[in-house]
Amino acid sequence: MAKEVTLLTGFLGAGKTTLLNQIITQKTETRFAIVENEIGEMSIDAELVVKGATELVELNNGCLCCSLNDDIFEVLNELWDKREQWDHLIIEATGIADPANIAQPFLTMEQVKRGYILKRVICVVDAEQVEDQLRETAEAVQQLVFSDLILLNKTEKVSPEYLLELQATLKSINPFATVYIGTKDDYKIKQLFQQERILNFSASPQAVTPKGIFSISRDPAKAAPLLAISSLHQQHQHSEIETILLRYTQSMDITLLEHRMMVFLILQSASVYRIKGIIYSEGFESKIILQTVGKSLAVDLGERWLPDELRESKVVFIGKNLQVHGFDKMFRDCLTKNL
Ligand SMILES: Nc1nc2c(ncn2[C@@H]2O[C@H](COP(=O)(O)OP(=O)(O)OP(=O)(O)O)[C@@H](O)[C@H]2O)c(=O)[nH]1
User: Fold this and answer.
1) Whose CA is nearest to atom 3 of ligand 1?
2) Domain residue ranges of the chain, discontinuous segments joined by +
3) I need a labelling partner for 22 at 20 to 30 A (CA). Which of 15, 117, 180, 232 fits?
4) Which residues, at least 6 apart from 92, have a Cβ–Cβ distance to it below 8 Å?
5) Which residue in 336, 327, 276, 328 sits closest to 302, CA to CA?
6) Domain 3-234 class?
């Protein structure tokens, strides 16, 4: 039997991982396989996904919609080999991905369609930030246009009047999508999963071979059809959006860091869409998860450090015209050794 797939899209920080965690915790009758795609070589999202996913695959070498096509085929093949262990695949795209590019193999490639049915594309939208995002980036528009379901999130942060305007705006961008409204505390997971794309798929499980459903090969001659798709996708680039990764092995003073971050967000954060970090602070048995979206800052406790785990802080910045030296100085100033 072909496996069902849900694609999660939405701009940086909209709430995709939060929704994913709600899905895993609420739909306990379903065993999920999760593909987490992140920009930059370091995975932070995978650490934020609640334990419970049967299979969690991280793809961190680039954005799935433009550079990871061979990787996704390999992952689909591997997951297919383990298909007895899971029921439903969720792909969380990066916040700057064009979901149409990720969906393309599921909609157009017969080998992929034999094993996987794309059931729905859900776009999570940050009610407070979306207007600016739509103005500034093509990616935010592409994500809305391609989705079947739009989850207008963080609605407690805006007024009811503005929410109505926003709904009308989203409907005008994608009149075919169903718009749900909510916050992280009240997602209607069952309703989201009841809704399906209206598409004609012909799944033919008999054609699936025990070795896998695609002929993946690094041999360029054998991999010709896949390479053709890869080169097509390379034309799509998130030209202006860049990422920076900073790491520090010394302990951070979390109170000082929080203060510096708040001042930074008030004064100079316009070109920074997202900051995500795992912070090591001596005296805390757990990782500290630091996140910003727009001008909002969240600092939470994460998983406990494992006894043999390297204790270090890792922070990713995503935005335009990023000033690495300024960020580095801000974080270095908060290292405990400097106090
Ligand atoms: N106030 C509020 N915050 C929310 C809501 N949903 C998510 N958040 C917060 O928004 C921040 C970003 O959420 P994520 O789920 O990590 O967003 P994401 O879309 O996965 O982010 P990227 O993977 O970086 O694109 C976190 O601090 C969440 O706790 C909500 O409904 N209300």
Assistant:
1) 154
2) 3-234, 242-338
3) 117
4) 8, 16, 17, 20, 34, 35, 36, 37, 45
5) 276
6) alpha beta
CATH number of 242-338: 3.30.1220.10
Residue with tokens 């407690």: 156
pLDDT in tens, 23-57: 999 998 999 999 988 776 566 777 777 766 667 77
What percent of the chain is modeled with pLDDT above 90?
A: 51
Instruction: List the structure tokens of 245.
Output: 């990764």
At 125 the pLDDT is 97
Closest CA to 133 of 329, 294, 311, 308: 294
pTM > 0.90: no
Q: Is 123 in the pocket of ligand 1 (CB under 6 A)?
A: no
Matching fold, domains 3-234 and 242-338? no
Pairing type for strands 116-126 and 3-9 reads: parallel
Say which residue the tokens 């149409």 belong to: 100
> How far, in Å, is the centroid of ligand 1 from the Cα of 64?
20
